[in-house]
Amino acid sequence: MFYTPAMNDQVSFRIIPPGEAPAFLDDLPIDALPISHDMQRRLRLLGLRRVGDLAQLPAGAVAAQFGAEGARAWELAHGQDRSPVVPYRPPRWLSERLAFPSPVIATEQLIAAIRRLLEHALKRSVGGKVSRLAARTFLLRLLLEDGQAWERQSTFREPVSSVDRMLVAIRPKIDSAIASGALAPCTEIEVSLLDVCGESVSQLHLFPSQRARSEIHEERVAEAARQLKARYGRPMLARILEVEPWSRIPERRFALIDYDP
To answer: DSSP secondary structure string, 172-196?
Structure first.
């Protein structure tokens, strides 16, 4: 089954009977295939501009010239697609808002309000049971006293359910905006969570040892380092490395190296 856009911007569907897919695809341009720009360029240099031109070539020759990408393109040109159908799931989105009785500019007051909103947003009652959620993207929006809006977004590598981890990502942005004068007193605050899913968990030790506690602390430091690097574009933390412990000059005993987990 194929679909094509109609003139009124609606989507029309057309069912292609078995065996007629190659004829239906024949006149489509070669860039209709999901292939790389380099392969498109090479096909055009060979005079192949339509999907039907590619379909007429021997499968072995196409695979020999373009590898696995060429073999898959040849199959698609014949209407053969063995990839599984993945249904589209729209991202879940949650939002919480809080209005201040008077304009606020202090960092700690903003962080306290953000924490309250995040804790409320990450807990939802489903069927009478409280369910803990996680989100991949955290969006903060502040409505300023002068009517303008200040927005910042933090995207994580995996869904995050920890309020503290989200605050670690957003606090430096608030501090920087206040220090530079870009953030004026705000009257309303809104937090939005995008790509919401179930809580992601990690296996913890049943009897936490000193080593286990150290690993937890190292992971927290590593996460903070990754967030700082994402914010400033370069490593912002450094490790102290012992170089010449026997030297009488303090500057030669140790060196600083970038901490880039």
So the answer is: HHHHHHHHHT----EEEEEEEEEEE
